[in-house]
Each structure stands twice: as C-alpha cells, then as structure tokens.
Amino acid sequence: MLNYKNHSEKISLIKEDKLSLRENVSFFLDNIKRNSNLNAYNFVFDDCLMQTSSIEQKIKNGSAGKLAGMVIAIKDVLAIKQQPLTCSSNILRDFIPTYTATAVQKLIDADAIIIGKTNCDEFAMGSSNENSAFGAVLNPVDKSRVPGGSSGGSAAAVAASLCDASLGTDTGGSIRQPAAFCGIYGLKPTYGRVSRYGLTAFASSFDTIGPFARNVEDIALVLSVISGYDEKDSTSFRTDVPDFITKLNSIKKFRIGLPKEYFAEGLNEEIHNAIFEKVEYLKKQGFEITEIELPHTEYSISAYYILTTAEASSNLARFDGARYGFRSKEDKNLLNMYVNSRSEGFGNEIKRRIMLGTYVLSSGYYDAYYRKAQKVRRLLKQDFDKAFEKVDLILTPTTPTTAFKIGEKTSDPLEMYLGDIYTTSANLAGIPGINIPIGKDKQGLPIGMQVMANQFDEVTLLSVAQIFNLSE
Amino acid sequence: MSVTRKEVEYIAQLARLRFKDEELENFTSQLNEILSYVDKLNELDTENVEPLSHPVEEFNKFRDDELKPSIEREEALKNAPDRTDEFFKVPKVINKE
C-alpha cells in the first residue's frame, strides 16, 4: 500500500531508501489490473516501469524535476505523441497524435511518470462518464454509481489509488463534479492559466485543464508545473505563476461569501448540513462569513448550454473523415463521406449537442439564442465581479446531490444538464474553483464543497483548501 | 420557440449528420424540451448589455512572422484514412458529365 501522504513525503522516502520507485509503479500497475472493472483507464503504459531507475537516480543525486516519480494519469482528450488519443470516441478510435500537449509535456519535463490515459465522456461532454465508446466508468466508492463526468476516469483512478494524481479537463464542472462524487480534491484553474495546446477542443472559451489528487499539496504542486504562458496557445495568459506550494500555508483571515442562490431549493439536505458544519468551523477560526448574492445564477445552465454547444458544433466540424479519424465505408461521394463518417463515428450525446449548437447558430436564431446567451454571460460575470469586491472567496456545494446510480439519468438529457447548476458559472466567468471532500452522507457517498476565487487567485483558493486538508 | 421535425432535418443537414426516423422523433422532442428550458433567458432585459465572448478579456497578441519548422508531410499523412504518396485522398468531387 501507499505509505506517503503527499509527493514531498514520497521523495523523502525514496531518498532514504524506504521506498523503491520501481515497486511503487508496479503497485499502481497491479492495482489498475485488480480494479479493471472500474474501467478507469482507456490505455495503460506498462513500459513506464523502464523510466523508474533513471528517475530514482536523479532523485538521489539531486538533479530531479519537481514531480520526479509522481505517477500521473492523463485524461484521454490530451495529446501525447505516439500514444493513442481517442477522446473516448469511435471517430478517433485509431488516432495517434504527432505532438504532445503542453500541459503533459511540462509534467514529463518535471520527471513525472505518465502511467496511462483515462476514460471520460466522449469529447468531454457529459456529467456521468456514461457517454464513452469504451463503456461507463464505475465509482470506486460504490460500483453501482457513476463517478461523475466528464473526467470520471481521472477521478476514479485517483480515488482508487491507481495513480498519485491525474489531469482532467473542466468546461462546466468536469473536474469539480467527479472529484465531489469520488471524494477527492479537483481544481479547475482560471481560464488561460494553463495552455490548451494539445487539448481536443470542446468549447474553446470555457475549456480548462487541471489536477486531481488525494491531498492539497499535490494539487498545488501539479498546478505550479502545468501553469504558464505558452506561445502555442494565444489564450494562455501572460502572467507570473505564483509559487503555489510555499504560499499554501500563508493563511490570512479571508472574507468568505455564501451565495444564497446556491443554498436554495434542490440542494440535498445532508449536503447542506455538511457544508454549514464547515462554515461554522471557519467562523470559529476567525474567518468573516457573509451572505452574498449572485442573482443571475438561475440563468447559468441556459447560457452555458447554448454557448458551449455552439462552440462544440464549430470545433467538431473538423471530424469529417478526410484527413484523420474514422471514415465510413459508405463513401460514394464527398458529401456522403462526411455525413456517414460523422453519423457512424459520433455517439448520441455528441450528436445532440452538435444539433443544438448548429440550431442556435443558424440564420434566424443567432440573435435570439447565441447572442442573447453571450449577453447573459456578461451579467453572470458582473455578478462575480461585484461579489469579489466584498469577499475573497465564495463557498458553495459542488453538486446538488451525491453520486447517482448508473443509468438513472441517461434517458433525460435535460435532467442531466441541470445537475451542473453549481459548477457552470465558474466557467462562464473564467474563475478558478476547487472541490474539497468534506465527508460522507448516510449511504457512505462522498460530499463535496466548492470554493471559488477571483480570476488568477488560485493562491487564496488553495490556502483555504489546505485548512481542511490539514484538519483531516 | 419550438422546432418541428422538418427543421430538425434541416439542422441535421447543416451539421452533416443523418438520423433514422425514430432518432429524428427523439431528437425533436429532446431539443424542444431543452429549448423551452433555455427560453428562460428571455425573462432578462439585455437591451444595453454588451455580449461577452471570452471570460478573460484581452487584446490581440502579435508575434513576429518567422519561418519555423512544422510537422513533416509523412507525419501529417500517418493518420489519413486514405492517401496517395503526397496527398489525402477523398472520393471524387467533380464528375465529368
């Protein structure tokens, strides 16, 4: 089993010869096999064992990178050169990228060990990891339930100790919600903090890449490595990357806001109570807690699904069977080749979203839907701007319920969308958010608490998460 | 607003997708359910609100126009479903008639 709490302890154990990196990686590989029924991985890189001796050497002679020996799994929407990239879709089943995503390259350059690629909802569209050409992922806490989505494999892999940490992506909650359902930490960074180069685009003005881990120190460590400007992504932000690790314990008495709209009807009572217990704890620690308003919250799901499906319908236009990906055998003429390749290659949820997105962008409906939603996006952003004049952090539930049963919501797409009520706003406003596991409900299912901060203020976000990490 | 089955067929054509009859029925009712939900946005007066297309508003980033190596042709063709020596191959576009 694992006898370290976080990566810095792991490094110390390796230096003191109390832990062999080779045995550690073998443990993970065996554990993945033992738990293959979870279906967390699309691909496992068994040959990563070969890297262990040189990295162990580097750790011992002091020349190792910041993530030396950290065993990391990558959501299968990020490109790694010469390894499959499927996005859990049949349309990319045999695709091998010719380059590596910047976020993954930075992990490799920091001497992390990449152990495999994790299952997810097809093209990261979904909230349950049931929309995958590789089949559903099971929640390691209760195998009759979903792990959440779309980064369900990345969350399940961390929760079940099938790796030290993982990368996921978050367009409307796809890191925070599965982290909540699986009982681990998951951070969605500020939009533009991490380069999207090599990430298969879903909704380009919403997509972010972030880490999952079982502790806050490792979240901070991975974030510090993957962050930063990249000339290959013009939307990555030219700003200094703070030292997230050393600032973890610089706790000030932050002002924390509770938006009343997030505690209204529809929130499970056990989640409500668990969060207010933590609020009381923070009050006792001397934090100033105030009720705030985010009045446009009830419009976030509508704006989110109009804008992201519009962006998705444009982004997925590139999958036409011409240059890469699946090509239908029914390809008598060019138009048929496009139509048949797409109709046979994409799953149902992808088609539903392409249809919705094409509709809201089509002539006659553009102003009524797409432009309207962009205006509402500004109103939602302004809600947050006003709130952050009064408070440093916003504390909410991550999800309205704990993990639901597999199959429970598959026949009702709208009901599935409504479950994203607490997470989509952060993506509309581009702000960072983290899931903090705060306990379990009566059925033993993990409860998640979300904390959001202003753009580029992950330092404050992580330091409040650290309070709960240390109090565990 | 609601969509008819005929409109859904038209959208499918725009999106280069094809559906079976029962799928069309299903999509029409699901799209209508979703559209009637998002109609909620019309409760808001947005007359004087500027659309927001990007959460982190920034100016254009310029870079020098320098020649740099990029992906080799052979690499680019590796994932092609069909190819000739130098090109992606697709079904005939122009027919002699």
Your description of this structure?
The complex is a heterodimer of chains A (472) and B (97). The relative contact order of chain A is 0.13. With 472 residues, chain A is α/β, with parallel strands linked by helices. The mean pLDDT of chain A is 96. An eleven-stranded mixed sheet of chain A has the order 1-3-2-4-6-5-10-11-9-7-8, with helices on both faces. In chain A, β2 (71-75), α4 and β3 form a beta-alpha-beta unit. Chain A has one domain: Amidase signature (AS) domain (Amidase signature (AS) enzymes, Alpha-Beta Complex), CATH 3.90.1300. Chain A is built from 15 helices and eleven strands. Helices cover 37% and strands 13% of the residues of chain A. Chain B is an all-alpha fold. Chain B has a domain at 5-42: Histone, subunit A, CATH 1.10.20. Chain B has helices at residues 5-14, 21-38, 73-77. The longest helix of chain B is centred in the N-terminal third of the chain and has 18 residues, at 21-38. Chain B is flat and about 55 Å long. At the A-B interface, α9, α10, α11, α12 and α13 of A face α1 and α2 of B.
Give a quick rundown of the structure.
The complex is a heterodimer of chains A (472) and B (97). By secondary structure, chain A is α/β, with parallel strands linked by helices. Helix content of chain A is 37%, strand content 13%.
CA(first)-CA(last) distance of chain B = 45 Å
pLDDT < 50 stretches of chain B: none
CATH class of chain A equals: Alpha Beta
Question: What distance separates the N and C termini of chain A?
Answer: 20 Å
Q: Which residue ranges of chain A are poorly predicted, with pLDDT under 50 across at least 5 consecutive positions?
A: none
Compute the average pLDDT of chain B. 91
CATH architecture of the domain at 5-42 in chain B: Orthogonal Bundle
What share of residues are in beta strands of chain B?
under 5%
Largest sheet entry of chain B: none
